[in-house]
Amino acid sequence: MPLMGPSEMFAAAYAGRYAVGAFNVNNMEIVQGIMRAASEEKSPVILQVSAGARKYAGQTYIMKLVEAALAEDSSVPVGVHLDHGPSFEMCRDCIDGGFSSVMIDGSHLPYEENINLTKKVADYAHSKNVWVEAELGKLAGVEEHVKSAEHVYTDPDQAVDFVRRTGCDSLAVAIGTSHGAYKFQDDAKLDFARLETISAKLQGYPLVLHGASSVPQEFVALCNKYGGQVGGAKGVPEDMLRQAAGMGVCKINVDTDIRLALTASIRQFIAEHPDQFDPRSYLTPAREAVKSMVVHKIRNVMGSSGKA
Ligand code: G3H
Ligand code: 13P
Ligand code: ZN
């Protein structure tokens, strides 16, 4: 199966009340870990590339890694997606470079400016048959180019107007999740009533949930046991994500949990084998840790096992 756009993936996910996992990739081991998990679980998967990842690895390297992954196993549908595209130009470069979907993130802009930018990207993307995700509302937390101290939840009526006026194909909504490892000071809480209203107003339309790592405490503990300082971290409980997947959320984004799994594994290995310095020695179990984390997500969070 070649690279697949989200259109078919999300139609099946919407109807089947599951989600497709979109996992952030930065290097070969992460791509391999995710792809091996998707193959084993026979699950569709989206590999997503942030502006920071694109800068770190280079767009050509990332695309060649994806190509290699597809050549190794062509049995599962795979999408490659620009995560939080900051500008029309970067979206255009990714569209021209073979990405199957792009996100234009104008969520930090005033409403009309977000509309104008998103529409410009959607018009270009659609002329090349590429899918566009946009964002309305603000997630609290820090991203590379967007910083927001406060959540601004997505307004349901505005979401309808935004989708109609921009032509974006999927919409990331703000209902209480945030990026990174520190999502909630108190108990985890998502605004499901708002999600239900948005879904009802946008019947059949695929929604996206960012900031959806669960920050498993065993991985935080493992990091800290071997010298890390990941204090007070808290993520989105898995049952809440499953619930969202049954409410029109077709794509669930996970980055932090992969970082935690990879780093915990490397910390542990290096602490337990102080004599070893061959990168392959610690990257082999680290890649396996990414794979196990993604298998777990596919089975328990996305519900997409066997949907390839
Ligand atoms: O939404 C943000 C993603 O976790 C990507 O993070 O910009 O540090 O690569 P990054
Ligand atoms: P997490 O930080 O919760 O993994 O969210 C990742 C994300 O939304 C990438 O766009
Ligand atoms: Zn995000």
TrEMBL record:
InterPro entries from the UniProt entry: Aldolase_TIM, Class_II_FBP_aldolase, FBA_II, Fruc_bis_ald_class-2
Q: What metabolic or biological pathway is this protein involved in?
A: Carbohydrate degradation; glycolysis; D-glyceraldehyde 3-phosphate and glycerone phosphate from D-glucose: step 4/4
What keyword terms does UniProt attach to this protein? Glycolysis, Lyase, Metal-binding, Zinc
Q: Which SUPFAM superfamilies match?
A: Aldolase
Q: What cofactors are annotated for this protein?
A: Zn(2+)
Task: Indicate the family of this protein.
Answer: Belongs to the class II fructose-bisphosphate aldolase family.
The protein's name is fructose-bisphosphate aldolase
